[in-house]
Specification:
Elements lengths: L8 H9 L6 E6 L4 H12 L3 E7 L1 H10 L8 E4 L3 H13 L5 E4 L4 H9 L12 E7 L7 E4 L9 H17 L6 E5 L10 H14 L7 E6 L1 H5 L1 H7 L11 E3 L3 H15 L2 E7 L5 E2 L7 H22 L3
Helix pairs in contact: 1-11, 2-11, 4-5
Length: about 325
């Protein structure tokens, strides 16, 4: 009898890659509910992260006790509230004590405000963006969707940074040179649809060396970006069409709807990570499955190792 196919084999492969790396020090900002503590504990128990918990110590210990989660051996940095926790977690990264940042039970905006602070944050020359690493049952490869969580209506130069961040992540995870589809509603340039103009411009920027490391094509509609038969029917011939690995959406609304459609209609899991800061930022949701939380941590840890190796400090 043939064994059933694993539902999310791409996540399993990414998690398996962490077996040969040391646990990465991760500042967890305000882990004051069961979901954020469980996500931290799962990554710790798999040897992916070495968490440093930042928040009101008494509340963290009470929540952990209620959820039967051991905090033995974990460092806790006591802060009075979530705002202070975000600032202290970012400070741990700036001091080099942590190589990753993880969102706990505070609002994403509160954590990102501390991350992007010009004086005390973690900004780089690159625009900060978000990538969903989607594991879609039956699809032959993981799908990166960007940006569906940070940049609401990105302009052309912001999209160039969004693409550069996603390419760097794809390569940093050891997945090779990515095929990047710049999505719109249609696959032809139409002045009445601004995203098609920007897609064409981004492809020209890649031709001129302004975006490197990946193979770009666009505009492409979703069907002919990920389905080879749809691309063939439309007569689209490119290295990307039908086989895209990174999907660049026109704006946050489109990306958010695409990711949630795949999650709730196709049974996909959506691991999330913020890029463009000094270190990867793990954004998890209370609705995330255990496997998704673990995959987010694995992606962040692998990418943190890549950044350290590139900087010559690993």
């Amino acid at each position: 009898m043939t064994a059933p196919m694993a539902l999310h084999p791409h996540y399993d492969a990414l998690i398996a890659l962490t077996a040969d790396i040391h646990p990465v020090a991760c500042a967890v900002a305000h882990p004051c509910d069961a979901a954020s503590l469980q996500g931290m504990a799962e990554a710790r128990d798999h040897g992916i992260l070495q968490p440093i918990l930042v928040g009101p110590e008494q509340k963290i210990r009470a929540e952990a006790a209620n959820a039967h989660i051991s905090l033995d051996g974990l460092r806790i940095v006591d802060t009075p509230h979530s705002h202070a926790a975000a600032e202290a977690a970012v400070a741990l990264v700036r001091s080099g004590e942590a190589q990753l940042l993880m969102k706990g039970s505070l609002h994403t905006d509160e954590l990102m405000h501390a991350v992007v602070d010009k004086a005390t944050g973690l900004r780089t020359e690159r625009r900060i963006s978000h990538v969903f690493i989607m594991d879609v049952p039956g699809h032959p490869r993981p799908l990166f969707i960007t940006d569906a969580a940070v940049n609401i209506f990105p302009d052309l130069l912001t999209k160039a940074d969004i693409i550069a961040n996603a390419i760097d992540l794809h390569r940093g995870l050891g997945l090779g040179v990515p095929r990047v589809a710049i999505l719109s509603a249609v696959e032809t340039v139409n002045p009445k649809i601004p995203s098609t103009i920007e897609a064409a411009a981004l492809c020209k920027m890649a031709e001129r060396g302004q975006i490197t490391g990946g193979v770009l094509d666009g505009p492409l509609a979703l069907d002919n970006a990920i389905n080879e038969e749809a691309a063939r029917i439309k007569g689209i011939r490119s290295e990307v069409a039908g086989r895209a690995q990174i999907l660049v959406v026109p704006d946050l609304e489109a990306g958010n709807m695409l990711a949630k459609n795949l999650t709730f209609l196709a049974g996909a899991d959506a691991a999330g990570i913020v890029l463009g800061a000094r270190v990867p930022v793990i954004l998890t949701s209370r609705a995330d499955s255990s496997r998704t939380r673990l995959a987010s941590a694995a992606v962040a840890a692998l990418y943190a190792r890549h950044l350290a190796e590139r900087a010559g400090v690993a």
